[in-house]
């Protein structure tokens, strides 16, 4: 098996440093508010990282291309699954068809009504009032 | 003759352990065949029980609960224990390496493991039966399946486990087709059964993992109430249906593609004619496998999914019909200027063409969303899927067994009885399931233990014929195995139908433990009936 | 020309879009029939025409294995047929989903194993959907427990009822009459008994009916009213009057066991009396009779006091010799 | 097809030659990777669908996860991926000792990963941030007490609030934070299971390499397990931002 491609040590080290660097970048970027662009960026960086792992650590770059095809196929079927499912989940009650079908009747699962309004240390939730917490879906 | 003394895989090596630990694909295939047929009989008996109950309205024979358990077990056994694992597992295992000229599949140990995983999963299914059954329908729709007090967990666990066996078989076959072909046997020289198994395996490895994760989520829903599928906990039952059908629609092509492959072998061999449109058939296999992944939502036309997806799914559904049609027409044209003999395999193949065309075309009715809203979950659907599964897959499977029986086991069955049984299956089948189309159109819902009087006539008609169907299938299979008892051995070199692929021309019947005594050399394509005459050799 | 066929294949056409759907069916049916005949005739003809004669020697056969003309026909003809089917199917489908603005709205709720209907002006019926003819009716469907599916064959329409979500269907009935409703999504033991009826009335008659809805009829004696409620409120899907156990214990047994101990699945027990029966109907989950499952839905809000009394009286009356 | 007796001990006789055996194993491994990706695909679909249904809840609840621990685990896993790759490199160069060392390092990093994961899980268990109906955390991050009358009027018109008659206060909770934790636990749990399986395989590799069953001429198992291990890393690369970072 000595005729197999042997990746030089340097390559591995460079790729690993890139991965560390990019991990830092995503964390850093996540603290900047870019709106919905945050997730796009995070996924972009993750995809770059994933490609580095696949091509270099997993040797796809030098392997038989059939293996690459198998890997890309898995991503394609994943894509099909997501996209076609979302054609339903995103468009219920949309396009002017029966808007009452869009949302669940009650959004909150019923068991929340039975939960005590205390945090796990037994303090009533009110006592945390002074702590700042982010506002979400109103205005 | 000394030839009779030749080693074959059935007798060599000997001893029970040599079977239990065998890595030989042919022995594993035989074990799949036997267990598959046992499950088929079990499912079939349950079906007859169901038909008996439905012969007349009212609860005269079994109670509602029993009926619900029976139809669920019937569906689950037939699908998850018989046609998905056992048909590729049996015929595929026995024939694939022979057809590509390999000594075994790529990963023999994995192959044995896959059989044991299947058996292990089947134990859970048997446990379910002994422990009182399960009553959710084979689709396990939430939230009923998260609430039902029947054995949902053992059954889904069994299905989860069997899923792995199916994945491993698929993986093995793909690697075998890609890497184990002998030199000269290029893609376009492969027998079409190999193409069909290749397409099947692709679907198996891509779709089955999603079934596995769906079953895991369903079990977690029961244990932890994770709230992904259960509306009481904020989940969405329609999402479950997406998950389930993302597997289960492609799974219907796991069931039918091997059958297509079998027909593509039987028709040219028994018509002694080059197959019509080789490349079209080969590529339509792949395109069916692919398009099959895009249409799952046609099972959900009344579920309340978005109007947009209704339209998309309806649109794509029709396109499965086109490559399938290409195959059907090509098979028929194959007989043109051939030399057709009406042997048992050929009779099964012709009745496949008849029945599957009905089944497939009624699939197009169901794909039309406006019409499916009326037909969904009625007996029209039941009739449709029995026409494709029983009339398509099972009939082709029986044909395949008759075709390769002398090859695989070195014995010949009584051909007259085989022909009579083949006619019995054809008539019994139509008699049982054709009335169900009418029942469905007139509004008879499925999964009903009792029904109103307006449907009596058609139901009792259907029950009557199902008995004939059952007898015919039973005797067709008994007739095959009887050849062992009768020791009706064929000559080791025999090639009774004059087949041209490697399994007929280069190895003995039954094959040598290592498949080929000498390394096979590729000489002619599997369908070159216009170039070479291969004698029909059948002695004794 | 299709008249006799309609009777043969389908139940009556009662909604405005029913004939549309039936025609779509006939279109697919006849095109499929042609394709099917091509397949079968081709197959029979070729296999007989080219059969191997007795004792005919094996020979090399023709190498013909393609024909550009035929192959393109394999694609083009089905493509044309499915395109027509698609356009037709979607047009009919849109008719089925676009609800006219002036439709009256009725809420349908599936409960294991009966249906309740809430009308726009208040009032509720059980297992009996009453609608005016020639008026669009919009149904807003949901379920209390598991999936059900609301199927009216004569309207050619069907829709699943999901817990915690609304689905919508509509129809415009063209003929007065009484027609079947089925549940077509498997929902447990009583699935096949989860039937109901749709009663289509002339609009004027409907108005009259709707205005009387909810008004009590005090004239009927209690046990008679109870006997009527027994079927109206779907008790009969689970309880018999003849002593045989269905999903729940037979009312005959309950009646015979009055003043006796009833044992529950948690080991406790109670004497059967009017209070017990009343709470069994309103809070069935609190005490579950040993040997049965707690699947009875609560009737809280579905029965008024007089109706409750009526049911109790009726159950008691089943035991013919209760005077002892 | 040669039947000569000189064929090496690892050679399986149904193959033509060693090269075919190697290529076949690798191809089989990639087919297996495909099934792995599709197994996780189901969970990613659940994630995506619920995230798009409850965007605010996801954004709000993800703050309950500890970014530092997540980042630490990311670093640990990337390092282990590197050491795994180096182990293969070393065996290719016939540096057996180095290879065993690298494998051991991989094993230790994997253990560290699970250690950190255990801490995270344990903390969530303590505070009740559990999946499904076992969820019981009602801390200030998910519950807001509203006293401002104007806001009370505004919120009573929506349905993710409820009124506690005893304290006469209106509470607003995020919609179904338990679903976030269900998905979180199932995905990281399945991933953790893969790490654990990987550790078992790596332990076996260490043993076989030390025994000399895996060597410069035959390291297929090491390469296959390496691919598996990198996949584990690859999935974490997505899990980390999806759960810990998105804001
Ligand atoms: C072997 C299994 C198998 C196969 C091969 C098929 C094949 C097809 N099926 Fe079927 N189906 C099932 C098994 C199968 N099905 C099962 C088990 C169910 C029910 C599950 C449950 O709910 O329990 C089901 C249910 C089902 C439904 C849902 C019905 C409902 O619940 O409301 C639909 C809807 O579109 C459908 C469509 C199709 C179509 C379009 C094809 C196509 O692939 C058919 C293609 C074939 C042809 C079209 C015939 C040959 C072609 C020609 C002669 C050429 C001319 C063609 C045209 C003009 C188009 N099937
Ligand atoms: C491969 C798949 C397969 C096969 C082969 C069959 C075969 C048969 N099926 Fe099945 N069926 C399903 C898959 C299959 N079915 C599925 C998936 C469902 C849906 C379940 C659900 O809704 O969840 C279903 C549902 C289903 C129903 C609808 C139930 C309902 O909705 O209420 C009915 C009703 O008639 C039925 C009947 C039959 C009959 C009579 C046969 C016959 O063809 C069987 C013939 C075979 C034998 C009889 C066995 C061999 C004979 C013997 C062992 C000897 C003993 C017998 C005699 C001597 C007479 N099936
Ligand atoms: Cu309700 Cu079936
Ligand atoms: Cu389908």
Short description:
The complex is a heterotetramer of chains A (139), B (540), C (324) and D (247). By secondary structure, chain A is mainly alpha-helical. Chain A is built from three helices and no strands.
Write the layout of secondary structure elements.
The complex is a heterotetramer of chains A (139), B (540), C (324) and D (247).
Chain A: H1 9-30, H2 37-57, H3 65-89
Chain B: H1 16-20, H2 25-54, H3 64-100, H4 108-130, H5 144-147, H6 152-179, H7 192-224, H8 237-271, H9 278-291, H10 307-334, H11 344-367, H12 369-375, H13 379-409, H14 415-441, H15 456-485, H16 502-505
Helix pairs in contact in B: 2-3, 2-4, 2-15, 3-4, 3-6, 3-7, 3-8, 3-13, 4-6, 6-7, 7-8, 7-9, 8-9, 8-10, 8-11, 8-13, 9-10, 10-11, 11-13, 11-14, 13-14, 13-15, 14-15
Chain D: H1 18-53, H2 55-61, H3 67-92, H4 96-127, E1 143-146, H5 149-156, E2 161-164, E3 169-173, H6 177-211, H7 220-245
The structure holds heme-A (2 copies), dinuclear copper ion (CUA) and copper (II) ion (CU).
Which oligomeric state applies? Answer: heterotetramer
- The computed structural class of chain C is alpha+beta
The CATH superfamily label of chain D reads Cytochrome c oxidase, subunit III, four-helix bundle
The count of β-strands of chain D is 3
General description of the model:
The complex is a heterotetramer of chains A (139), B (540), C (324) and D (247). Helix content of chain B is 67%, strand content 0%. The longest helix of chain B has 37 residues, at 64-100. Chain B has one domain: Up-down Bundle (Cytochrome C Oxidase, Chain A). Chain B has 540 residues and is an all-alpha fold. Chain C is built from eight helices and twelve strands. Chain C has helices at 3-9, 18-49, 68-97, 203-212, 222-232, 251-256, 274-282, 305-318; strands at 104-111, 114-118, 124-126, 128-132, 136-143, 148-152, 157-161, 167-172, 177-183, 196-201, 261-263, 269-271. In chain C, strands 3-2-1-5-8 form a five-stranded mixed β-sheet, with no helix packed on it. In chain C, strands 4-10-9-6-7 form a five-stranded mixed β-sheet, covered by helices on one side. In chain C, a hairpin with a 5-residue loop joins strand 11 (261-263) and strand 12 (269-271). By secondary structure, chain D is mainly alpha-helical. Chain D has a single domain (18-137, 174-244), classed as Up-down Bundle (Four Helix Bundle (Hemerythrin (Met), subunit A)), CATH 1.20.120.80. Chain D has seven helices and three strands, in the order H-H-H-H-E-H-E-E-H-H. Chain D has helices at 18-53, 55-61, 67-92, 96-127, 149-156, 177-211, 220-245, and strands at 143-146, 161-164, 169-173. A three-stranded antiparallel β-sheet of chain D has the order 1-3-2. In chain D, a hairpin with a 4-residue loop joins strand 2 (161-164) and strand 3. In chain D, helix 1 (18-53) packs antiparallel against helix 6 (177-211) and helix 6 runs antiparallel to helix 7 (220-245). Mean pLDDT of chain D is 86; it is low at 1-5. At the B-C interface, helix 3, helix 8, helix 10, helix 11 and helix 12 of B face helix 2, helix 3, strand 7 and strand 9 of C. Bound molecules: heme-A (HEA) (2 copies), dinuclear copper ion (CUA) and copper (II) ion (CU). One heme-A sits between chains B (139, 252, 255-256, 298-299, 301, 317-318, 320-321, 324-325, 328, 357, 360-361, 363-364, 366-367, 372, 375-377, 381, 384-385, 388-389, 392-393) and C (35, 39, 78, 81-82).
């Amino acid at each position: 098996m000595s005729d197999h491609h042997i990746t030089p040590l340097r390559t591995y080290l460079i790729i690993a440093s890139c991965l560390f660097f990019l991990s830092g970048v995503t964390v850093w970027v996540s603290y900047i508010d870019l709106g919905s662009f945050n997730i796009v960026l995070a996924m972009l960086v993750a995809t770059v990282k994933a490609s580095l792992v696949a091509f270099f650590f997993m040797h796809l770059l030098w392997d038989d291309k059939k293996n690459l095809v198998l890997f890309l196929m898995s991503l394609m079927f994943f894509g099909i699954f997501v996209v076609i499912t979302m054609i339903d989940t995103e468009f219920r009650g949309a396009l002017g068809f029966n808007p009452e079908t869009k949302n669940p009747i009650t959004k909150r699962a019923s068991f929340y009504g039975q939960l005590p309004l205390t945090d796990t240390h037994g303090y009533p939730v009110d006592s945390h009032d002074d702590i700042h917490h982010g506002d979400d879906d109103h205005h | 003759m000394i030839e009779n003394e030749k080693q074959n895989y059935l007798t060599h090596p000997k001893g029970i352990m040599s079977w239990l630990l065998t890595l030989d694909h042919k022995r594993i295939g035989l074990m799949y065949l036997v267990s598959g047929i046992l499950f088929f009989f079990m499912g079939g008996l349950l079906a007859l029980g169901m038909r008996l109950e439905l012969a007349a309205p009212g609860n005269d024979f079994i109670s509602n609960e029993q009926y619900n358990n029976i139809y669920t077990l019937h569906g689950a056994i037939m699908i998850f224990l018989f046609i998905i694992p056992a048909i590729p597992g049996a015929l595929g295992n026995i024939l694939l390496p022979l057809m590509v000229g390999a000594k075994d599949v790529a990963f023999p140990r994995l192959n044995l493991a896959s059989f044991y995983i299947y058996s292990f999963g089947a134990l859970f299914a048997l446990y379910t039966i002994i422990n009182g059954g399960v009553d959710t329908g084979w689709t396990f729709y939430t939230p009923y399946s998260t609430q039902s007090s029947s054995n949902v967990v053992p059954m889904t666990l069994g299905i989860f486990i069997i899923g792995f066996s199916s994945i491993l078989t698929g993986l093995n076959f793909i690697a075998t087709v890609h890497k184990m072909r002998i030199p000269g046997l290029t893609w376009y020289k492969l027998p079409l059964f190999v193409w069909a198994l290749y397409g099947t395996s692709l679907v198996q490895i891509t779709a089955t993992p999603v079934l596995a994760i769906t079953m895991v989520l369903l079990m977690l829903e029961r244990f932890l109430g994770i709230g992904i599928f259960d509306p009481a906990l904020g989940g969405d039952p329609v999402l479950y249906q997406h998950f389930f059908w993302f597997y289960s629609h492609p799974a219907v092509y796991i069931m039918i593609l091997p059958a297509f492959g079998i027909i593509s072998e039987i028709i040219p061999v028994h018509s002694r004619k080059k197959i019509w449109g080789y490349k079209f058939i080969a590529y339509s296999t792949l395109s069916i496998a692919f398009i099959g992944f895009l249409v799952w939502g046609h099972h959900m036309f009344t579920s309340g999914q978005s109007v947009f997806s209704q339209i998309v799914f309806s649109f794509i559904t029709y396109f499965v019909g086109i490559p399938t049609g290409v195959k059907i027409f090509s098979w028929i044209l194959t007989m043109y200027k051939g030399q057709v003999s009406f042997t048992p395999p050929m009779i099964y193949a012709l009745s496949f063409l008849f029945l599957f065309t009905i089944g497939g075309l009624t699939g197009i009715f169901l794909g039309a969303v406006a019409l499916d809203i009326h037909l969904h979950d009625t007996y029209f659907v039941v009739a449709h899927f029995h026409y494709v599964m029983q009339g398509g897959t099972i009939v082709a499977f029986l044909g395949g067994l008759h075709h390769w029986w002398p090859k695989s086991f070195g014995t010949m069955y009584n051909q007259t009885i085989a022909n009579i049984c083949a006619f019995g299956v054809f008539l019994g089948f139509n008699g049982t399931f054709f009335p169900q189309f009418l029942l469905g159109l007139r509004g008879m819902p499925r999964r009903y233990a009792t029904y109103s009087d307006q449907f009596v006539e058609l139901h009792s008609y259907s029950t009557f014929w199902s008995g004939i169907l059952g007898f015919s299938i039973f005797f067709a299979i008994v007739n095959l195995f009887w050849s062992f008892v009768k020791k009706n051995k064929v000559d080791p070199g025999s090639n009774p139908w004059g087949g041209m692929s490697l399994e007929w021309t280069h190895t003995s019947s039954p094959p040598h433990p290592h498949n080929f005594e000498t390394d096979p050399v590729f000489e002619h394509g599997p369908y070159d009936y216009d170039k070479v005459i291969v004698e029909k050799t059948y002695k004794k | 020309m299709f008249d006799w066929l309609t009777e043969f294949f389908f139940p009556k056409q009662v909604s405005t879009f029913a004939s549309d759907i039936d025609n779509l069916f006939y279109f697919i049916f006849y095109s499929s029939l042609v394709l099917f005949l091509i397949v079968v005739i081709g197959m029979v003809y070729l296999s007989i025409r080219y059969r191997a004669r007795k004792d005919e020697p094996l020979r090399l056969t023709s190498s013909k294995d393609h024909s550009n003309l035929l192959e393109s026909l394999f694609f083009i003809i089905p493509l044309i047929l499915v395109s027509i089917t698609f356009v037709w199917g979607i047009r009919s489908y849109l008719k089925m989903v676009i609800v006219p603005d002036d439709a009256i709205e009725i809420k349908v709720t599936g409960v294991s194993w009966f249906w309740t209907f809430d009308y726009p002006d208040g009032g509720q019926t059980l297992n009996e959907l009453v609608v005016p003819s020639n008026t669009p009716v919009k149904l807003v469907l949901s379920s209390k427990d598991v999936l059900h599916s609301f199927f009216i064959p004569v309207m050619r329409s069907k829709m699943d009822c999901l817990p915690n979500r609304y689905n919508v269907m509509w129809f415009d009935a063209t003929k007065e009459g009484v027609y079947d409703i089925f549940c077509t999504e498997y929902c447990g033991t009583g699935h096949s008994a989860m039937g109901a009826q749709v009663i289509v009335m002339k609009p004027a008659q409907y108005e009259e009916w709707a205005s009387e809805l909810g008004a009590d009829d005090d004239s009927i004696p209690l046990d008679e009213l109870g006997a009527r409620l027994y079927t109206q409120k779907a008790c009969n899907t689970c309880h018999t009057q003849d002593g045989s156990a269905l999903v729940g214990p037979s009312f005959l047994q309950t009646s015979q066991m009055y003043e006796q101990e009833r044992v529950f699945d948690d080991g406790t027990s109670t004497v059967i009396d009017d209070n017990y029966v009343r709470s069994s109907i309103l809070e069935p989950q609190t005490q579950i009779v040993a040997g049965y499952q707690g699947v009875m839905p609560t009737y809280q809000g579905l029965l008024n006091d007089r109706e409750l009394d009526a049911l109790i009286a009726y159950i008691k009356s089943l035991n013919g010799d209760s005077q002892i | 097809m040669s039947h000569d007796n000189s064929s090496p001990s690892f050679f399986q006789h149904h193959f033509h030659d060693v090269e075919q055996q190697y290529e076949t194993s690798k191809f089989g491994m990639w087919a297996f990777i495909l099934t792995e990706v599709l197994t996780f695909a189901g969970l990613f679909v659940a994630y995506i669908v619920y995230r798009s249904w409850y965007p605010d809840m996801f954004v709000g609840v993800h703050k309950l996860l500890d970014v530092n621990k997540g980042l630490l685990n990311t670093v640990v896993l990337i390092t282990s991926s590197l050491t795994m790759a180096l182990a293969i490199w070393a065996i290719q160069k016939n540096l057996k000792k180095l290879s065993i060392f690298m494998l051991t390092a991989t094993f230790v990093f994997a253990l560290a990963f699970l250690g950190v994961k255990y801490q995270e899980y344990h903390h969530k268990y303590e505070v009740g941030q559990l999946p499904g109906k076992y969820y019981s955390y009602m801390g200030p991050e998910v519950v807001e007490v509203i006293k401002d009358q104007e806001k009370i009027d505004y919120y009573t018109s929506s349905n993710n609030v409820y009124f506690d008659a005893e304290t006469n206060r209106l509470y607003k909770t995020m919609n179904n934070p338990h679903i976030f934790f269900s998905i979180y636990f199932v995905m990281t749990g399945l991933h953790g299971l893969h790490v654990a399986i990987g550790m078992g395989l790596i332990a076996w590799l260490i043993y076989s390499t030390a025994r000399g069953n895996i060597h410069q001429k035959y390291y297929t198992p090491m390469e296959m397990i390496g691919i598996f291990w990198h996949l584990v890393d690859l999935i974490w690369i997505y899990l980390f931002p999806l759960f810990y970072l998105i804001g």
